[in-house]
Amino acid sequence: MPRTSIHWVEDMSHNDTLTLTKLLRLPERLQVEENWLVRQEKKIVYLPTHLKRSRALIPRLVEKFTSPSTKAILCPSHRCLDPQLIRRLFLSIVDECTTRVRRFTDSPPSDRDIRAWLTRVKTINSLWTQPILYRYLFNANPGDPEFEYTHSECEACILATIGGNTTMLADLRICAITRRTNHGPTPRIIRILDGWLYWTGMAETIRAESDPLYLKVRNARRGRPITQSYDSHAMPETINDRRDGTRDYKRDDRRDNRSEDRRDDKGDDRRDQRIPESTDADIIGFYLNRLSRMSRTHQRSGRPNNDSTHSLHPAFRDNIVFDASTGIYGQRQEDDIPLVPSIPSIIPEPKRQPPMASSSYSRAGSGVGFSNSTSKMTEWRHDDYAEQRSEAYRKLVTRDSEVTQDSKEMEWLQQYPWT
């Protein structure tokens, strides 16, 4: 029986991580172009089924009615990937570049190396934020280095660009690993970053070169002296690391197969025990704070305050609204979404008439026999139903009597024609 699609990063096995990171990896000196996209589309065909969009009828119906905020924006070449898994990977990367470095952006550090690292991390946001808005939100100048904006807004293409850049991977890994507490769980994005580093062929070298910067950033996060060292192995290794850079894949496969049976029952419990991660609401709050700050600056300087939400990535722009009359940004609430108007019925619904009080059991205060429920026969009758029935009976009797009298006169005339 084929495995169901994986929607959570923590449910990915080691082999799943290596497979997906090998696919979503654009070499550093290349750009997203047609030839690379064609090769991507061919490679996706050979991916495991649980890493791709399900083709079964019921899962596709469920996906159709799933909230758009949980599904990734994918280009035609990456449309067969699982959209929910790609969206969570993308949000994990955006989280490291926005909310996780807010402490340093609000109060810039004095150390030159940390400031340079922070600038490189903020520059990653230029991949999914249009250039003009990116410079406003992250205080960048037009001459500062920035990456080319991904015009397709495909989240898989953005992840592939990050996965092929060793500098980005090293900086993001420092950002993620330094927020880990002592003896605490490892942030889930570490496994993805290590998967990308594995395919560079020099993962150990990159981690060793990042050790001094890792110590500075970690000490700055904890309020310690930046130059102080506390251990001999600065950059901690994850559970998937090996000294010689090799791995026993047969052992991994056996362990993955044994864990598949326990994954469904313990998946939710394992997610609760993981390190708490930011959600898209936290990232939206970050952008909302920056946009509001930019709006206040424009108002004080007298510059026109236009709507800039269209320059954000679709994963966030649909949740932020701009009030043109006040120039204020706000978060879209569920009540702001217009309701779908109901289609009126072709046949108008008849107006129900109150029932007749024909007996003591149908009157209020008549004792135990009183009941508010009425039968269908009395529910649809008019108030003058009894009078209408009497009038109809009287007309019927009168008409029959007239017909009988006329017939008798005709018989008498036939018998006595001379009269």
Automatic annotation (TrEMBL):
Residues 302-311, 356-377 have a biased composition (Polar residues). Residues 226-278, 295-314, 348-383, 398-419 are annotated as: Disordered. Residues 239-277, 398-411 have a biased composition (Basic and acidic residues). It comes from the Eukaryota. This is Uncharacterized protein. The lineage of its organism: Eukaryota, Fungi, Dikarya, Ascomycota, Pezizomycotina.
